[in-house]
Amino acid sequence: xxxxxxxxxxxxxxxxxxxxxxxxxxxxxxxxxxxxxxxxxxxxxxxxxxxxxxxxxxxxxxxxxxxxxxxxxxxxxxxxxxxxxxxxxxxxxxxxxxxxxxxxxxxxxxxxxxxxxxxxxxxxxxxxxxxxxxxxxxxxxxxxxxxxxxxxxxxxxxxxxxxxxxxxxxxxxxxxxxxxxxxxxxxxxxxxxxxxxxxxxxxxxxxxxxxxxxxxxxxxxxxxxxxxxxxxxxxxxxxxxxxxxxxxxxxxxxxxxxxxxxxxxxxxxxxxxxxxxxxxxxxxxxxxxxxxxxxxxxxxxxxxxxxxxxxxxxxxxxxxxxxxxxxxxxxxxxxxxxxxxxxxxxxxxxxxxxxxxxxxxxxxxxxxxxxxxxxxxxxxxxxxxxxxxxxxxxxxxxxxxxxxxxxxxxxxxxxxxxxxxxxxxxxxxxxxxxxxxxxxxxxxxxxxxxxxxxxxxxxxxxxxxxxxxxxxxxxxxxxxxxxxxxxxxxxxxxxxxxxxxxxxxxxxxxxxxxxxxxxxxxxxxxxxxxxxxxxxxxxxxxxxxxxxxxxxxxxxxxxxxxxxxxxxxxxxxxxxxxxxxxxxxxxxxxxxxxxxxxxxxxxxxxxxxxxxxxxxxxxxxxxxxxxxxxxxxxxxxxxxxxxxxxxxxxxxxxxxxxxxxxxxxxxxxxxxxxxxxxxxxxxxxxxxxxxxxxxxxxxxxxxxxxxxxxxxxxxxxxxxxxxxxxxxxxxxxxxxxxxxxxxxxxxxxxxxxxxxxxxxxxxxxxxxxxxxxxxxxxxxxxxxxxxxxxxxxxxxxxxxxxxxxxxxxxxxxxxxxxxxxxxxxxxxxxxxxxxxxxxxxxxxxxxxxxxxxxxxxxxxxxxxxxxxxxxxxxxxxxxxxxxxxxxxxxxxxxxxxxxxxxxxxxxxxxxxxxxxxxxxxxxxxxxxxxxxxxxxxx
Length: 938
What we know:
Monomer. With 938 residues, the protein is of the alpha/beta class.
């Protein structure tokens, strides 16, 4: 009767399940970490270590997290955990941006729904509601971030709206004020008619917009060249609404101009026979064609310098626009588009404003804050600038000024908050000078001292700082830190008194920024000053100044952090946002950058590379991913992508990550099962290990260096790939496959089995630690599963461990080269066996006996090794000479050929190898020699 030897086989045992069931199990681990206060324990562990501080760029507190938030926060978490587990102290203090327009809008929306007028609500009440709104979303986002597995000081985050933060922002502004860098002056700034406030460049995004184009005659009333006498110069613009603000026409002194007389016109043309028109010679053909001018003669050609001193009349002359319009030289005039003569409205364009300032032009107040013309604008008072195109064209036509009208689709500035188009509008605003106190120079010098990852970030931010205008820091809104400045009504100069700033800051620290509105100004001004002599500014600060100041009240304001930060990390759009505002704020007050390194990531797109949009229906929310897969899958997606570029996500991509996760999880499960009952007494020293184990230890040594290098480069895509490939290729497809027989069937005290389990213990030790910053839940689950039930030390966690040092004695380059060749040859053998299985000539590899022909260069590769053991066959023969023509070969492994035959002998009932010795043991006639010995001494 056949004996059942199953009980004598050392099958793996583990309580670590194959299926992770992450959505259900991850919350329990979060509770465990919260209960043991893991973050505080890590701070205690790192008390005397070198500190690494990643300063959190504040997300905005106004809604649920989106997938971009997940990418950003997970990357930050992975970095901080990697630094902590490499032996540093890596605290992470999350933060939130709490002021600004989006929150105001939500409160205003509530008012409108209730029929209330925001302007009738007391300012302090309005600000209180904004503060409560932000607090609500901070609480919501906090829990959503924690669910991602992000570990931080969640009970003590930094908020830009705490009283202490607002007070410090006041102090930071005060430094710019007292140093003379903060000033108020007229400027043509980006203005949002929808939001009724000035916007900085960082708040602008560009979208395509179709605009009305017009070509307009400006009649010359003072000629400086004979050809200009009785002529009209032509301007072209995409903003017809700016015509009422025109005060000059700009020309290029070195450009070539032409005066032409109209001799032929097409039907419908607005041109007039015999009139003389002046424009750039290079653009004449295109302009005349668009105007329907079919015939012309050249009256004269001349350089632009001939315009010097010439004067035109406004197209609406005689209807309230009775002023001279001088022709002025401008470096910005080109022949790329238009007419080569640029309509100049000093109140509605940056170059226009600068040209007007240089020549003392009037800056008329033509457009109100809501985008309508002011009462003093003839003809168009009360019209909205975005709705006036048709009327403007009609009026110009009636005045005989319009020559042509068209349509142009072009890139146009929009507010990134409201998505509505903006205008240039001249107003008096508060600025921080880029030149006073050499702020631009300091910022450029600081950029060169910072490490930028990727390196292209350096040139990007440098080019922005080199050309950026003065920093516009004022906003005409209510919810934010006020510009706490008093202006002398007689001189118009701001009061630059440090004691006044200190008194304001103290009050704000006690009551919040509302103190600026509720306390008596005399309290701030101090004795000897009459409040009637000063204007108390009511504008609020640009929220970029808020976030740009976070280094001062977070990095400098907490003893668990350090200044400057080791790293800032945000999306690539922050070169013109937070990275730049922090740089300028810090350079303006401290002379250098608040960060040592800056890392940027791309944006999240759908699987087809499209921007996510609710209307398209391609939005994937992190909450959805967690509910279906678990947070570890989301974390694996983040690090598996090359986030230096834009990152794609889709159901198919997430499914692929779930497959990759299962391979990593099964690696942990296999190791845990194989290590069941392992003790220190079983451990084998390196010198006594078989060659295969020494090769695997070399691979561990190699991988340790590669992972540390990837972490130093913030290259987690490479780190994740290294871990996955090692588990899938080196372990599952090779080492585990080869050593399964040894684990199951060798005697417990055999050298091979002890060596295998020793190496597997080292593998588990390193793989759980290396994976812990990425798969925070799974690594902890696997590490806890290593302990007997109920014997986990209190407060212990895989996340408190340090990356183990790897013994240089494990390195063996010669052995690695030999085993590289062994594995190449093994691929040919296993490929040949797979053909036999596919053709159903054998059912399992243990039924096979491959004969392997090796060319001379491979003759000694297997010296001292058992090719049958490595091929998972019952026998194998190595030979030289010429192989049969029909032998199996692989093109990329020349010099190796294989023919597979059947193994001789009977099948061992315990290890299933087919061997001639089966049947020779009287006590165990169904076993081979090894298994008979193992059972006899088991």
